[in-house]
């Protein structure tokens, strides 16, 4: 887990955060809309067109929202509320798009120029293969950037996912730059045919994904017309092991990977063949791949395609898109996210979903929901970083072990020279100088 997480963090209270979603009308419509939904009793709608009033904001009641038509989003409008309410909403935005960008450096400059004076923080990477963005900010700035990006026909159809950030920024600063690889993988990805949709896996809508899992897991909600209740396929979790440890789809095997960079499924490497779920698998077997937002699956599916695997399928929009549409059906636990929130429960994505939670037996051979130190089942499905700055291990831990080892992952780390305090409540670790200065001040006072 070392070196794989973008920043040291420990956040509590994530279970109460609301997840929102963005819904776009067809870009060619005279006036397209997108909506930000939350678990509160309102829905924020933005209308946008070059020849119409820009960013006209209205708050709608969720109960008055109607279904989406094929020609765009159709909703009933209600009285506007104060502008200040919207400005106080903080969101996290995620999207990516594989598309040819001839002059990527110039594209970066355009984006930097647009974001001048806007309160945006996060990771936005651009290169010749497209864009990959995860950022946070007040909704006014965050959604203005989305709107501006989608005015470019190259990005008009990208799936944008938005979630609430109850405590403000989820990233420490903005990194908007050219990057050779939109995701980090050993050997890079610039040589992969990512711009050719036929080389990537076939995307499955969340509803289709759910039906396939229900059939395989023998769920009573499976479609009665299914001819083969237990289809022959492999459910491949294309994430890291520590992500699986707090949440995964029923039937998915824990990936023996601590950083996506080193993923080698299906590559028949002798040293990892025992841990490879695709080792010795018939190349015509259906492989269902999933990750958090979809980009890692899209990238890795091109590698598997080159290895001869023929029937590759991905979960469109990843787990976050699935939970928003289907709720926690066939999902166990929370969803790990790569920002300061760390962990989000399914109820945050779809609070109205009322289902019986899937149960997974926690056994000695199952690392799901287990404390990294003592091996007992943990109550809170979120990771924390080791208090030893020079270790910074990301791990699950029960509160007894947190207290016994003062926030460290092992007894050795408790004697480290750069030891941060045990974090309590909804906080995250800051820069080392903050704690160094506090320690120095404490010693001088003593």
From TrEMBL:
Q: Which Gene3D superfamilies match?
A: 3.30.70.100, Rhodanese-like domain
InterPro entries registered for this protein in UniProt? Rhodanese-like_dom, Rhodanese-like_dom_sf, Rhodanese_C, TrhO, TRHO_N
Q: Which residues form the Rhodanese domain?
A: 229-331
Q: What name does this protein carry? A: Putative Rhodanese-like domain, rhodanase
